[in-house]
Amino acid sequence: MAVFSRGFQGRRERDAGLPPGQYLTDDFPVLSAGPTPPVTTEDWSFTVTTEAGERTSWSWADLMALPAEEPTVDIHCVTRWSKLGTTWRGVSLDVLLADVETAADYAMVHSSGGYTTNLPLEDLLDGKAWIAYEFDGEPLEPVHGGPARLLVPHLYFWKSAKWVSGLELLPDDEPGFWEELGYHNYGDPWREQRYDGD
């Protein structure tokens, strides 16, 4: 069951600068497939597992010691809202995967609470994705995926998994949670790839 924030307000007018079917909001709606898991920075970790089973893990302290970036990006939800010029702070996946040896083409993202989503590995590299832990200059709130979430702004926002805990590198693509329930396998907002068959 999805969870929506109260008082969500959006402007329904069509904006030529938005992907098709989207409308602008100044809010940051909360949508989740279940309750917010109680993840703290003390027990948070992120693990990359290669297709050969090799694991590399980072604690919260490890993550904070890595070079951070502050991307300002537009985000687009499959439920049709868009929020422009959002500012985040986090660690690029390029940094986290720099020393990981893999021949994988795909990744399955894992989150606390059991949520998963799949992505081509190329969509996580070359400055396209971050493990984000701040939003608008403040620590990322738990309802928005804190203490850390994946940020992949060029795809619909369900691909930016909340409460991220790991990345499994795969030779072949496999559907994640929403993809198994009929959402599009890729999720490009500019192509309006909301659901399977779009």
From TrEMBL:
InterPro entries found in the cross-reference section: OxRdtase_Mopterin-bd_dom, OxRdtase_Mopterin-bd_sf
Top-level lineage group: Bacteria
CDD domains registered for this protein in UniProt: arch_bact_SO_family_Moco
Sequence ranges assigned to domain Oxidoreductase molybdopterin-binding in this UniProt record: 34-178
SUPFAM superfamilies assigned: Oxidoreductase molybdopterin-binding domain
Pfam families linked: Oxidored_molyb
Positions of region (Disordered): 1-22
Name recorded for this polypeptide: Sulfite oxidase-like oxidoreductase
Originating organism: Amycolatopsis nalaikhensis
Lineage per the UniProt record: Bacteria, Bacillati, Actinomycetota, Actinomycetes, Pseudonocardiales
